[in-house]
Structures are given as C-alpha cells and as structure tokens.
Design brief:
The structure holds two protein chains of two kinds. Chain A is mainly alpha-helical. Chain A is built from nine helices and no strands. Chain B is mostly helical. Helices cover 57% and strands 0% of the residues of chain B. Chain B contains seven helices and no strands. In chain B, α5 runs antiparallel to α7. Chain B is globular and about 40 Å long. Chains A and B meet through α5, α6 and α7 of A and α4 and α6 of B.
C-alpha cells in the first residue's frame, strides 16, 4: 500500500521554529506578552504552574483555532467538500472547547485570559495541502501540550475535563490525516507529549505583536516545564 | 459518495451486515447497549467532570494497570482475529493491523510497568466473542465502534485516580491513542465527519467491568 505524504515546504518550514534561538526571536518579534510567553520568559525557578495557568494556556489555543484558524480556512475558498465538512466540524468542536474552558476557569474562581490578536500568514492559506499540513501540526501540538501538562495538573476534576478535551484533539489529528491521505489514519501507539516551549513555537507564527495580555500568573522556565512534564 | 466511500476496496453489504450486527448486538446487548455505551455518534457535550474517577480511587495503580492490561489484550485479540479473518484489504487492512499493534504495544508497556511495580501480570483471559463478529467487515467494524469508547472511558475515568505521575503520563498517552482509534474506526465505518464528538466520555469502573465481562474479563 502506498503511503501518501504531502510535503508542503512552506508550512513545514514555518510551522516550527528551527531552533530555540529562533523561537525566542519569533516571540520577541511578536511582542510576546502572552500568558504562555510569560510562562516561558519570566521567572527561572521555584514557581509553580497552577491549573488555571494551564487552562488559560489551553484557552489561548482554543481561541486561535475556533475563532481564527479554522474559520479562515473555511473562508479562503481552498477546501474541497470533504475537507470543508471536517473543518466545519473542527470549528464547532473548538468553539465548544473554548466555552467549556471559560466556564471551567470561572468555576475555579479564575479569570479567563483575553483573546490575543492572531493573524494567519498567507502561505498557510495558499492551498488545501498547505493548510492541512499546518492543521495537522496544530492538532498534534494540542495533544502533545496536554500530555505534557497533565502530570502538572493538581485537581482531579480539572484533569478529567482536560482529558476529555485532549482525546478529541487526538481524534482531530486522525480526521486531518485522512484528508491528507496519510495511512494508517491512526498511526501512534503512544502519542507524544510536547513541552510548553514547543507548543508556543507552533503558535508563535500566528501571534500579532503587542496585544497578548499578561495575566502575571504563570512563571515557569522551559527547563522547569520540561522537568515537570517528565518527572 | 464521499472520498472514503469511493475508495473502499471491498464490498460491504450493509443490509446483510446490519442484520448480522443486530445478532451480535443482541448478544452483547446487556453489556453495551443497555448502558448507553455506543460508538454511534453519541455526542454529549460536557465540560465538567462528573466524578467517574472516584470509582477507581482506592484500587491502587497496580490494580488499575492489571485491569487495563486485560482490556488491551481483549482489544488486541479482537483486532488480531479481524486481521486473520481476512476481512480487510489495503488502507482498511493497514489501519486494523496498526490498531492491533498499538493495543499489543500498550499491553506490553503495561506488563513492563507492572513488573517494575513488583505486581503480577494477569494471565491472558479466555476471550469470547459473539458469533459472527468476524463474519464480515461491517459487523466487525460496528463491534469495534463499541469497543473503543469502553477503552477510552476506562482510561479517562481511571487517570485522575492514579498515584504515580509517570504512570499517569503513560495512561493519558494511551487514552489519546484509543481516542484516535475511535476516529479511525469511524472513518472505516464511513461516519462523516469522523471526528464527531466534542468531549470524550469517562466511564465509571462498574460500567467498564460490566461491558467487558461477557468477553471473558471477570477480574
């Protein structure tokens, strides 16, 4: 059986920061005031990432996907009927996740982070293939970020709710792989965790400078995040 | 006709399959259907956990893993039998083989962890499957669509009750793989869109036990 791999140079080249230095550069260019960014850039030691920090980080990703990323693809006129069905479903799913996270954050007495300003680079919307490659990277990151953060979550109720969402992001990976013609559709026995740093690197090309609000909350260096995620 | 449908490399007689499935469903009826466990697009939007994990508290990590080990063997055996029965070709076969291998890799990883904990690895149960489960592709796939939510619900339910953060990290990775399987089985079942849930559902221990008991897991 042939395995069809669609290589989209643009999306792959830009979807991930090439190095740690590039990552910090891209965040610096982006103005980097986000919850997530401050989680990385401020505070080197001794601080604890709270459940609310993690939920607000997840909310930032859901804002992006539900309000900007997937709607932009639907509006770009690049999707086949088959892809449109799945992407419309992705909008619907991520909207529900966004709303659920806002409710959960409020129920814990927290304040939902404001929506940062996002923009989609042209290369992402140049073709269905380019968009789907980026979508796959995004969904893999969603899964990985949760898998990396889960061991840090304190509340069993928050962990249960987050798991309910993360599993669906895993399903989204499979739905997008099918659209890309990748076989088998479900191909990982042990989906991989990513660090907060890697998750941010995925998101950073889409963040417009200067508008991401700081919650002043999370204080965690990449090293600390990695250590906690790999206890 | 969707793209997936046009690529089906073998004939599925949906009507014959549906009747066969109803027979198997009758067999497993008490196990799955009556409890509302089904893979057929049951979308219940829930943001808040409802405390399923509490039913796993007090078991301890080893006992949870011993149960999970048997679940993985059940699933792995089911997919292995599906492969052996020659029901699938091409992309469909590749997917069923991959899921079989994933379940067996999960079982191996769990057995290794049990060894590290100094806990017993349970003997392989004598599994029983409904008549006709491996008779045709559609019947098999519809049964697969009922299996996956049980595995998902078990891991999702048990995860917050785990003590070890290492074991938790592994368990949620496996949980995610099971969710990915659910979507893949949806694709093979021509469910469109295949990612048809916004929230995965946790299951309390008793529901999982009742669901797998007819297949030979009695622990």
């Amino acid at each position: 059986m042939d395995k069809h791999t669609i290589n989209v140079a643009g999306a792959q080249e830009f979807g991930r920061a090439r190095s740690r230095r590039d990552f910090f550069k891209s965040l610096a260019v982006a103005g980097a005031g986000a919850t997530a960014a401050s989680m990385l850039l401020s505070g080197k030691a001794s601080a604890q990432t709270t459940d609310l920090d993690i939920l607000n980080f997840a909310l930032t990703i859901e804002y992006f996907e539900s309000e900007v990323f997937y709607p932009a693809a639907l509006n770009a006129g690049i999707l086949s009927a088959d892809a449109k069905t799945v992407v419309a479903q992705l909008v619907d799913i991520e909207v529900q996740h966004r709303d659920a996270l806002i409710d959960l954050i409020k129920s814990l007495g927290g304040t939902p982070v404001n929506r940062p300003k996002f923009a989609i680079p042209d290369y992402v919307l140049a073709s269905e293939g380019a968009f789907l490659e980026t979508a796959l990277a995004q969904e893999l990151t969603d899964v990985g970020a949760f898998l990396g953060a889960a061991p840090m979550i304190q509340s069993p109720d928050v962990l249960a709710a987050a798991g309910s969402i993360a599993g669906v992001e895993g399903e989204n990976v499979v739905a997008v792989r099918r659209l890309l013609g990748l076989v088998p559709y479900a191909n990982e026995a042990f989906p991989a965790a990513v660090t907060m740093e890697e998750a941010l690197a995925e998101l950073s090309p889409f963040v417009v400078g200067g508008t991401m609000p700081s919650t002043g909350g999370p204080k965690l260096s990449p090293e600390e995040a990695y250590r906690l995620a790999h206890l | 006709m969707s793209e997936v449908e046009s690529r089906i490399p073998f004939g599925i007689d949906r009507e014959v399959s549906r009747r066969n499935f109803l027979k198997t469903a009758a067999w497993t009826g008490a196990a799955f259907s009556a409890m509302g466990i089904g893979g057929f697009g049951v979308a219940v939007g829930r943001a808040q956990a409802q405390g399923e994990y509490k039913t796993y508290e007090g078991l301890g990590d080893a006992a949870i893993l011993q149960f999970a080990y048997q679940l993985e063997l059940l699933e792995g055996t089911f997919y292995a039998e599906g492969v052996k029965a020659g029901l699938f070709e091409d992309a469909f076969l590749e997917q069923i083989v991959a899921i079989r291998d994933h379940e067996m890799a999960h079982a191996d990883a769990i057995a290794t962890t049990l060894g590290q904990l100094g806990a017993d690895v349970p003997p392989t149960p004598q599994f029983t499957f409904p008549n006709g489960a491996f008779g045709d592709a559609a019947t098999f796939l519809e049964l697969a669509a009922t299996f996956e939510p049980v595995g998902i619900g078990a891991y999702q339910g048990a995860a917050p009750a785990l003590q070890s953060k290492d074991i938790l990290a592994a368990a949620i990775s496996i949980h995610n793989a099971e969710c990915q399987h659910r979507c893949a089985i949806n694709i093979l079942n021509l469910v469109d869109p295949p990612n048809n849930l916004a929230f995965e559902e946790a299951l309390p221990l008793q529901k999982v036990q009742a669901a797998v008991e007819p297949f030979g897991i009695t622990a």
